[in-house]
């Protein structure tokens, strides 16, 4: 996706069906960039000792 941060935010917002006003696009782009920067930090975590957790267990056969 080429273009400035603002152009990318506007294109992304159209793709997902979110309305972003032209005068808000710069702030949205900055916030999105900040979020992505913080999420990148998660890649440095050592999760080898963490056991997976079933968040949505499969439903049983009618036992509720």
Q: Mind explaining what this structure looks like?
A:
The structure is a single chain. The chain has 64 residues and is mainly α. Helices cover 45% and strands 0% of the residues. It has 2 helices and no strands. The protein has helices at 5-16, 25-41. Helix 1 crosses helix 2. The model has no long low-confidence stretch (mean pLDDT 88).
Q: What labels would you give this structure?
A:
single chain; 0% strand; mainly alpha; 64 residues
Multimeric organization: single chain
Structural class: mainly alpha
Distance between the termini: 47 Å
Radius of gyration: 19 Å
What coarse outline follows from CA principal-axis ratios?
A: elongated
Order of helices and strands: HH
- The total count of helices amounts to 2
Low-confidence stretches: none
